Amino acid sequence: MAETKESAPDFTKVSDENIKNFNRDEQKKEDKKWGYDLYPERRNETYKTTLKNIFMGKEGTENIDKFKCEQNVWKCINKSPMVKLMMGALKSSGCAIDIRRHISCEACDYSVSGGYDPMLNQIVVCQNVAKNEGLVQGVLTHEMIHMFDYCNNDLDFKNIDHLACTEIRAANLTHCSFMSAMIQGDASIFRIKKAHQNCVKTKALCSVLAVRKVTAEEALAAIDRVFPKCYNDLEPIGRRIRRNSTDMHRAYLEAPYYGYDV
Ligand SMILES: [Zn+2]
């Protein structure tokens, strides 16, 4: 009777191709860990349209999306007091924005509307998600806060405490500032404060989890560690902006007093 031979892997046959595949897989794992897989165009892979998304009317319009996105970026840079303030603050900190070099409209995963790529010092505006001027303004302001922190605060995005801190600041100065006005009507000052802090924590948690493969517990622990310090750091906007108020314009007008060149 013939012996059944276990086919053992033949290590003499490790080809260049295998090594290449291995390296590519490792790179993909690494990209995923740091959130790079959310921005396919960042990896020199052009965004692949899936048939399903075309049927849903989501894709197949990349060029039009890019054109519209770039127009919205241009409008925000010229009109939005928040974006202009952030650009002035970046310039005064020695990190002036060159629109062509530092802002890029790209197709992204539908779970994100924008991002900041510290390796290239570039803001990504997701042209397939942030589809109107208001959303683009939100993305630009949020990501410019990360850019500002990277420029001024020795930010290390691989350090989860640093990431948590800059996400707390971005949520505090942009997203949740708008929220606080909506809940102001019926709440006591104490409850507003509490609700606002909860908004910042929740938003920062979502942001951290969107880009980093960590558990919610790990992300929350980091947020709690740095919360008091980062929540109270209002640079460079100087205040929490309320919706339908003149706060945005006031912040912009007062920027020169903080030494920002707007
Ligand atoms: Zn963020």
Automatic annotation (TrEMBL):
Gene Ontology molecular function: any one: metal ion binding
Entry EC no(s): 3.4.24.-
One Pfam entry name: Peptidase_M76
GO biological process, one term: mitochondrial proton-transporting ATP synthase complex assembly
InterPro entries assigned: Peptidase_M76_ATP23
Keywords, in A-Z order: Hydrolase, Metal-binding, Metalloprotease, Protease
Family from the record: Belongs to the peptidase M76 family.
Protein name: Mitochondrial inner membrane protease ATP23
UniProt source species: Chironomus riparius
